[in-house]
Write a structure and sequence with these properties.
By secondary structure, the protein is α+β, with helices and mostly antiparallel strands. It is 17% helix and 35% strand.
Length: 320
C-alpha cells in the first residue's frame, strides 16, 4: 500500500469573507466547494483548489468566528507548500506580493528548488515552490478564469512541514506504518537546531513530501486563526482505505474509524507527536453534486444535512 501524495490540508480562519478574498483574488485559487463543517454545520468549510478540485490541489478552511491568534510552537503543522509551474512563475509572484503588500521573504532556495515563504493576513505560514524540475506526482491545472495568469497559477499542494519535539516518534509512524521513505535533509531554519528531515511517498516530488523539523526550544503550539488543523494523504479508493484502517488498528493507534465525507471517504488518527492525519480517497470528488462549470457558486450540503438547509443558511453570512 502506498499513498499517491498529499490529498488536502485543512486550516482555521476567523473570517470566511476575508479568507475568500485572499485565496481567490490574491492567490488566484478557485473556490470549488462552499460547504459547512459536517461536524458543526453552523460554520463554513471552504475548499480552494485547481480548476476542478483534483485531489492534491485542495487547501481548505474552517471558519471559527472569534477564534484567537495562533501561538506558534511545537506539535504542529507549521508550513503548507503550494506548487507553481516553474522558476519564472516565482518571479511573477514576488511582484504580485509586493503589489498587494503580502508579507513574504523573497526568492530563496530549498532542496535545490526555488521557493518563496509568505503569510496570509491571519499569519497562515505558506510557501510557493517551483516545479521547474519536478519528476514526481503530477500537478493540477489552474483555473483559466483566475485573476492570476494560468501559466503562473498555483497547481496544487507542495511539501508539508511538521514541527515536533522528538524525531523518532514521528519518523517511525511515517516510515514503518505509513510507508514514507527518507530522501534527504536540509539546514535548520533556526541556528543550533537539528537539520530538517525529508520524506516522500508514492511517486515523490513536491506533491508528496513531509518535512520534519525538530525543535527543542519551543513549547506546544496553541492553535487559532492561521493554524493548520490536519493534513490528509491520498488513498486510491474505499477498498484501499479499509486496508489502511486495518493497518492502523494493528498498530493500536486510536482512530476515527471510516467516515463518509460525501466528497471522499476518510480515516483520521493522531500520531505520537500530536499531529492529526487524515487518509482520504480520491473518489468521488467535488463534481458529485455540482457541475465543473459552477463549482463553489452555491452552498453545497451533504445529503444528511440537506433537510436543515434553511436553518444552516440563516446562520451563515455571505462571503462575497
Amino acid at each position: 500500500m502506498e499513498f499517491s501524495g498529499i490529498h488536502h490540508v485543512s486550516a482555521l480562519t476567523a473570517s470566511a469573507k476575508r479568507n475568500y478574498h485572499f485565496y481567490t483574488e490574491i492567490l488566484g485559487m478557485r473556490l470549488v466547494k462552499k460547504s459547512v463543517n459536517q461536524d458543526s454545520p453552523d460554520m463554513y468549510h471552504l475548499f480552494y483548489a485547481d480548476e476542478m478540485g483534483r485531489p492534491g490541489t485542495d487547501l481548505t478552511f474552517f471558519e471559527m468566528l472569534g477564534v484567537g491568534q495562533t501561538y506558534r510552537g511545537n506539535n504542529s503543522i507549521s508550513l503548507t507548500g503550494l506548487r507553481v509551474p516553474d522558476d519564472e512563475a516565482l518571479k511573477y509572484w514576488v511582484e504580485r506580493f509586493e503589489h498587494y503588500q503580502v508579507k513574504h521573504q523573497g526568492l530563496t532556495e530549498q532542496l535545490g528548488r526555488q521557493v518563496i515563504f509568505f503569510e496570509d493576513p491571519e499569519g497562515q505560514r505558506l510557501m510557493l515552490v517551483s516545479d521547474q524540475n519536478n519528476q514526481g506526482v503530477a500537478a493540477g491545472i489552474p483555473w483559466d478564469k483566475s485573476p492570476v495568469p494560468q501559466k503562473y497559477g498555483i497547481t496544487g499542494l507542495g511539501p508539508i512541514r511538521l514541527t515536533i519535539p522528538e524525531l523518532a516518534l514521528s519518523e517511525r509512524v511515517l516510515t514503518r506504518v505509513m510507508g514514507f521513505r527518507h530522501v534527504g535533509r536540509y539546514p535548520a531554519y533556526q541556528e543550533g537546531q537539528a537539520e530538517v528531515e525529508v520524506y516522500q511517498t508514492g511517486q515523490g516530488g513536491t506533491g508528496a513530501e513531509v518535512h520534519l523539523e525538530v525543535r527543542n526550544d519551543l513549547s506546544k503550539e496553541k492553535p487559532g486563526r492561521g493554524s493548520v488543523h490536519h493534513v490528509a494523504f491520498r488513498v486510491k479508493d474505499e477498498q484501499q482505505l479499509k486496508l489502511w484502517y486495518e493497518r492502523i488498528k494493528e498498530e493500536r493507534m486510536p482512530n476515527s474509524g471510516l467516515i463518509d465525507r460525501y466528497y471522499f471517504k476518510s480515516l483520521y488518527f493522531r500520531e505520537p507527536n500530536g499531529i492529526l492525519y487524515e487518509l482520504a480517497t480520491d473518489e468521488p470528488g467535488f463534481t458529485t453534486d455540482e457541475p465543473v462549470e459552477s463549482l463553489g457558486e452555491s452552498l453545497a450540503l451533504p445529503p444528511f444535512l440537506e433537510g436543515k438547509r434553511s436553518a444552516i443558511e440563516a446562520q451563515l453570512a455571505p462571503i462575497k
